[in-house]
Fold this protein.
Amino acid sequence: MLVGPKTADDAAVYRISDELALIQTVDFFTPVVDDPYQFGAIAAANSLSDVYAMGGRPVLALNVVGFPRGSDVTPMSMLAEILRGGAEKAREAGIDIVGGHTVDDQEPKYGLCVTGFVHPKAYWTNIGGAAGDRLVLTKPIGTGIVTTAMKAGTAGEDAMRSAVTAMATLNRAAAEVGRKVGVRACTDITGFGLLGHLREMLGGVGARIRLSAVPILPGARELAAKGAIPGGSRRNKESLDRIVNYHDGIDEVDRLLLCDAQTSGGLLFAVEPGRTTDLLSGLSEAGVPAAAIGELVAEPEGRIEVAP
């Protein structure tokens, strides 16, 4: 076992031979959007992301489904659309969904168990970055806030469209560029938010990020200011307050944004300073939006400083 349950990594890694290691992960959740096809695609992209975050490539997947049987509110045609969205997203990733398991559940749930491959000496982990490494983030944050507003009927069309597009986008291209350039560490940004997943990268180092450099979904800050904050985002912030030093000029809305619980977020890379330009240019050429948002610093207690 190269990567197991003792760390906060995105997936398990098991060495099969000197040339091949297996990546294994599973993830599923309740609908974050009303459209069943979009939900299936987003859930699949989210599940596949854990393999990309380990530096691997997915090779097959299994469906994990909870769905109410015999409901007029959620007909079986809705399940068919969820599965179609997941299958088409898997094909976009170059793999097939080869089976799965379904249970009768009053609240719909969907995701994938994904198997991937990686070279046993080439996988990424959360921890591995060094002081001075730059932090590069793909995908804007704010999906938790926007989807909360969507459920309340208060999100605008631009905000909804941008959030759905971001969540349904695979992290495949970003991972391919990261492998080509060479990065020290990686994680994907999901339920613990940007600062929560950044904390998982701090093995013997600290971090400094600049709020102004962090990409945010259109409309997300405005929606947050109006109160569209999911409970998970508030809990994330509460758990992080003891290790995060915010500049006095950063207000509570922005602090919550940095802790916003994401669905199918981007990858956060730690990369040597000399490779940062190559990483950013490679991501741009691949059509992946990305930003250098800060750096790792010599801070053995693992604290995070947030500057304006």
Observations:
- The first strand starts at residue 12 and ends at 15.
- The chain is about 35% helix and 25% strand.
